[in-house]
Fold:
Amino acid sequence: MKVKKPKYIMMNKPKDWVFSDPRLQEMKQDYAAYREEDFEVWRILFERQIVNLPNAASKAYLKGIKGIDFTSDKIADFEDVNRRLADSTGWEIQVVPGLIDDDLFFGLMNNKRFCSSTWLRKMEQLDYLEEPDMFHDAFAHMPMLTNQHYVDFLENLSGLALKHIDNKWAVELLSRIYWFTIEFGLIREEGEIKIYGAGILSSAGETKYSLSDQPTHHEYDVKRILNTPYWKDKFQDKYFIIDSYEQLFESLTEIESVLEEMVAEEAGK
Ligand SMILES: [Fe+2]
Structure:
C-alpha cells in the first residue's frame, strides 16, 4: 500500500554529487555467500529479540517489521526490502563497506538511501560488537524506514548536516540528535513508553534497561540533547521521549536555529 506523503517543505534539497562519488563503490549484497553459520546467527538474534518487542517497541516499528516481512529463518534480503520500501516511503538500502565518512553517510540519507553493511557477526560475538553489523542495520533500522515522518526527519537532518559538514563541532552536535533519536529514541504511545531507537531495538539487554527505572527519562528537548554528550561503549544513562514522529520532523526548525547559535558561540570563543 502506498503511504500518502505529507506535504512538507523540504529544508534542504538532495545533493546528487553522492551518486558519482568515487568512494561509493558498486557494492551489493551477495546473498548466495551467506553460510549456515550466518543463518544460524540471524535466527538466534532474531528469535531472542523478537519476543521482547511486542510490549516494548513502538507501533511504527512493529508495523514496519511486518510490512518488510523479516523472519527468523531468512537473513534480510535487501532486494526484497527495497521492493517493499519502494511501495511505502521510496527509500532504498545502500550497501556500504562498514563505517563511512560523515559527508557520504549524510549525503546518502539526504538522497533517501540508508547505509547498511552486509556482514553478520560470528557466533562468538552474539552479545558484543564494536561496529554495527547487518543484524543491527537491518533488523533494528529498516522497519522504521517505512514511516514517512521518520524518514522525512532523517532526510532533512542529513541535509542540515551537509550544510555544516566542514564544521566538526556542528557535525558533533547533529550526531547527538541522531544518537538520542534514531539510535536511542523512545516514544510515548497511549501513555506508555516504547522504543523506536535502533541501538536499543537490536539489544535485548538495553531493551529491558531503557524502559526500566535505572536510567532517567526526559521529554524530547532539542536544546538539552544538543548539550548532551553521549557514549558508545555502555548503556546510556538518559533517554529522551518524543510524543510523535511528526514532532521529530517539526523539531528540525528548532534544531537548525539552536545549532546555528551554538556554532556561532563556539566560533566567537
Ligand atoms: Fe545504527
Observations:
- The two ends are 52 Å apart (CA to CA).
- DSSP finds twelve helices and six strands in the chain.
- Strands lie at 92-95, 113-116, 186-189, 192-195, 216-219, 238-242.
- The first strand starts at residue 92 and ends at 95.
